[in-house]
Specification:
about 475 residues; alpha/beta
């Protein structure tokens, strides 16, 4: 086994013991010498494992004494409860709030509201090189129209589907300009004005606004912050024939970070197929897992082609390149026609650049580093919240993605908290943005996909103080 994997394996094992309260705050870790002897590894490997745990914020070094546990998962027994979205419609519109938060983010010095990793975490130089190579390798330097999409990109996406149990062929894939384009084409192809689409609650505001813009009614369903959509709630609306379409963010939902277990994904796919209702699956964050393997998708269990699997490289590699895709299953002809009407062709150069980046193995190397950083960041954010925020604060503990969903005392209005935070040049995303109903006023979302420094730590301290006030 590679040295890199060995040190991560040791770090993960110790983290598992901390998580299960085998090791508690203040406990001393075994010495480096004992780790070397027991695990049969070199001193440098043992040191790397301890450095990794230190970077994750789980242990601290004490001079002439050794390493001690400094973090306890028990700090956060309280996770936000399963949502119970209101059924009644509200007249209040949040478009102004969404517009304010997104447009003002650029004024903030610490942008905890953005939905993508910081540029510093992305392989900018290598992508620049890939773009140059793409202009050289493509016919006519990539200036020609490309209707069907880059074959190498589609082939690489199909190959990577093996990681989640997929059996895709390049021809199954329709490239798009980002994931929102893919979702849009699916909705436009499968629903008509006045139809009802079921979604999780809370859910990414872009999905809500898109559905509204198309003229769909949105039915928000109860959602668990760990396991995702509540199966029984979905079953009831299906049996009552209340919906014509369903859209789920199966892995590391934005904003809660929930990840549906395999058995839930399997059951959702079975239910949707039984009632002949198409399922659009947004798997935008699936590659950003913190565990040992990539989670499955709903598409993994799709035998009939009823699941339309959507994704992109916007959250993992290159937000501005707008490279996404949809695997529409049995709805391919409809989605292809919709794409032709709305966008005609693909962006040749960026698609070729991403395709070659994947082909050369650079993507997996980049993802490994990015996942380690994001995992470490999530633990550091949890530590900071436990130190600085009110004691009754509840927060999710995602196993992937880039978001934390925070719940404060019901007396706290997070729109007011947002306004006060912006006075300190800190941006957050108030919970009201992630619903069309009058709810989540005391929730907000944080993005931990950034380089951690003293300014970020101080901003979390300020947020905690404002929340207490």
């Amino acid at each position: 086994m590679k040295k890199e994997l060995l040190y991560l394996q040791i770090a993960d094992n110790i983290q598992h013991q901390i998580k299960n309260d085998v090791l508690k705050v203040g406990d001393k870790l075994p010495s480096l010498r004992i780790i070397c002897h027991e695990r049969g590894v070199s001193l440098s490997t043992a040191q790397q494992a301890f450095y990794e745990l230190e970077n994750r914020g789980l242990v601290e070094s004490r001079p002439q004494s050794g390493y001690y546990i400094s973090y306890s998962y028990k700090n956060f027994r309280n996770i936000p409860a399963t949502s119970q979205p209101a059924v009644a419609r509200v007249n209040e519109d949040v478009e102004e709030l969404i517009s304010a938060v997104t447009s003002n983010a650029g004024r903030a010095e610490v942008q905890l509201s953005v939905g993508v990793p910081s540029i510093e975490l992305l392989p900018v130089a290598k992508l620049n090189k890939a773009i140059i190579n793409a202009t050289r390798s493509l016919p006519q330097s990539g200036l020609n129209y490309d209707r069907y999409g880059n074959i190498n990109l589609k082939k690489q996406i199909a190959i990577r589907s093996f990681l989640w149990g997929g059996k895709l062929d390049a021809n199954d894939i329709i490239p798009t300009a980002g994931c929102m384009d893919a979702l849009s084409f699916c909705m436009l192809s499968l629903a008509k004005k006045g139809d009802t689409i079921a979604v999780e609650s809370p859910v990414y505001m872009g999905i809500l606004q898109l559905a509204k813009n198309i003229g769909l009614n949105v039915l928000e369903l109860p959602t668990n912050p760990i396991t995702g959509i509540e199966i029984e709630a979905l079953k009831k609306v299906l049996e009552a024939n209340k919906i014509q379409l369903c859209l789920l963010v199966s892995n590391f939902n934005n904003p809660t970070g929930s990840c549906m277990p395999d058995e839930n994904k399997k059951e959702v796919v079975r239910l949707m197929e039984k009632h002949n209702i198409p399922l659009i699956e947004d798997d935008l964050f699936g590659d950003l897992y913190f565990g040992n393997h990539r989670p499955s998708t709903c598409k993994t269990f799709d035998e009939s082609g009823n699941v339309l699997w959507c994704g992109s490289f916007s959250k993992t590699l290159a937000p501005g390149y707008r490279v996404g895709w949809v695997v529409p299953g049995k709805y391919k002809e409809k989605v292809e026609r919709t794409k032709l009407y709305h966008s005609l062709y693909c962006t040749s150069i960026t698609h070729e650049a991403i395709g070659s980046f994947l082909e050369n193995g650079r993507y997996e190397n980049h993802l490994r580093k990015l996942r380690q950083t994001l995992h470490r960041n999530s633990l550091q954010f949890l530590r900071a919240i436990s130190e600085y925020f009110p004691e009754d604060t509840k927060v999710t503990r995602p196993q992937g993605g880039i978001h934390l969903w925070v719940e404060l005392n019901k007396k706290v209005d997070t729109i007011e908290l947002y306004n006060k935070a912006m006075n300190h040049k800190i941006s957050i995303s108030p919970g009201r943005m992630f619903t069309l109903q009058n709810q989540y006023q005391n929730n907000f979302k944080l993005n931990f996909g950034m380089i951690l420094n003293d300014k970020v730590e101080e901003s979390l301290k300020v947020l905690g103080r404002l929340a207490r006030e």
